[in-house]
Amino acid sequence: MAWDFSTEPEFQKKLDWVEEFCREEIEPLEYVFPYAVRSPDPVVKGYVRGLQQQIKERGLWAIFLDKKLGGPGFGQLKLALLNEVIGRYPSAPAMFGAAAPDTGNMEMLAAYGTEEQKQRWLKPLLNQDIFSAYSMTEPQGGSDPNLFKTHAVRDGDEWVINGEKWFTSAGRVADILFVMCTNGMFVVPRKTPGVEIMPEPRNHNHIIYRDVRVPLDHLLGPEDGAKVLAQRRLGGGRIHHAMRTIAQCKLALDMMCERALSRESHGKVIAEHQMVQEKIADSYAELLQLRLMVLYTAWKIDNTSTQEARTEIAAVKFTMAKALREISFRALHIFGSLGTTDLTPLQAMYAGAPTMGIADGVDEVHKATVARRLLAQYRPQQHPYWPTEYIPAKREAAWKKFEPKFQAQPELRASAEAYKKYFAARRSG
């Protein structure tokens, strides 16, 4: 079938199980034991491991990895459908072994790591025995690798790293840091001497690397190969962020519809007010557009490659941030004062939308990427003055094309002249 919007029945059963499992097991756990996956308490850790064993038995662990990299190999389209469920629950990605920043780091290790590196770092990351962070952006250069200054120098049997990184998310609680240098990607244990984590920001850490020494085998992939590894990591990360954003937008829509049917204003429930209806309708349309866009992009990746789908991935990146911002903002307004508090997810959702537009490269960069790649498919107009779709020129060309037919059928020419006269009269008023 050339066009099909259905989900395979067997895979739908998996999605149904994931939805029930998240609702009945993961969400309650989140409210009783926040950040349970990282809990040092052996009792809590044991409980989490029990839940995760159920996930593994269903073949749903580390869902982001291809089969050749050791994962279930669902492909991006099925992964999108899974993330659409998991993304609704903040702790679910971690419970399924599929939370950033570990996901991208594990992908790099799986694709470029030596067997020894995989045993040392990938296996413990997959088992959540350790956690990682991605140390890429810099204060003076943002996410532009051409402006980075952090560099590693070889000294005997070690690399010596010096530089400064900004917004290393979860760096403070990571066991290992994947540090992008101008001349390679390096794995640095957080407790290595010289790794200095600044007090602020608390969650997205500012880290200074002062004469940080790591063994030679802590270089991941080839020397000078950091950009290639980063693209592998970030390309997948962007589409995965978009998948989970669908879930957040759907949550906001569900909340605003429930609220609209529950509150009264000026003698009727607010769902009957046209401005509220407009907010709901616009949100539904934007959610549907984003969802179809993400699913199409995932399908294209499965059928071509991440490289071939670069335009679509970039377009999804800036579209998801805008959709999340607009839909959560409308929901917040429908909730009124309650929406501005931390008593519902809406305030955090709306506050997180700007971050979504900056993480993994600012939206403006992705818009420029889309524009450049699209413009490369076109050529300037051939006529010095008129565009290709200039109607008088097209009309003249059409008459020339018909000339042989007119010569063969004089009555056809007569009809054409009559048409021409009629429409000329209409245009002249």
What does this structure look like?
This protein has 429 residues and is α+β, with helices and mostly antiparallel strands. The protein has four domains: 9-113, Butyryl-Coa Dehydrogenase, subunit A, domain 1, CATH 1.10.540; 130-220, Butyryl-CoA Dehydrogenase, subunit A, domain 2; 227-376, Butyryl-CoA Dehydrogenase, subunit A, domain 3 (Up-down Bundle); 391-426, no CATH class. Helices cover 53% and strands 13% of the residues. It has helices at 9-32, 42-57, 76-86, 92-95, 102-112, 115-126, 226-260, 274-303, 310-335, 346-356, 363-375, 391-408, 410-427, and strands at 132-135, 151-155, 158-169, 176-181, 184-189, 195-197, 204-215, 219-220, 264-265, 268-269. The strands form three sheets. The protein has a four-stranded mixed β-sheet. Strand 2 (151-155) and strand 3 (158-169) form a beta hairpin. Helix 1 (9-32) packs parallel to helix 3 and helix 9 packs antiparallel against helix 10. The model has no long low-confidence stretch (mean pLDDT 94).
Write the SSE topology:
Elements (H helix, E strand, L loop, with lengths): L8 H24 L9 H16 L18 H11 L5 H4 L6 H11 L2 H12 L5 E4 L15 E5 L2 E12 L6 E6 L2 E6 L5 E3 L6 E12 L3 E2 L5 H35 L3 E2 L2 E2 L4 H30 L6 H26 L10 H11 L6 H13 L15 H18 L1 H18 L2
Helix pairs in contact: 1-3, 3-7, 3-8, 5-6, 5-7, 7-8, 7-9, 8-9, 9-10, 9-11, 12-13
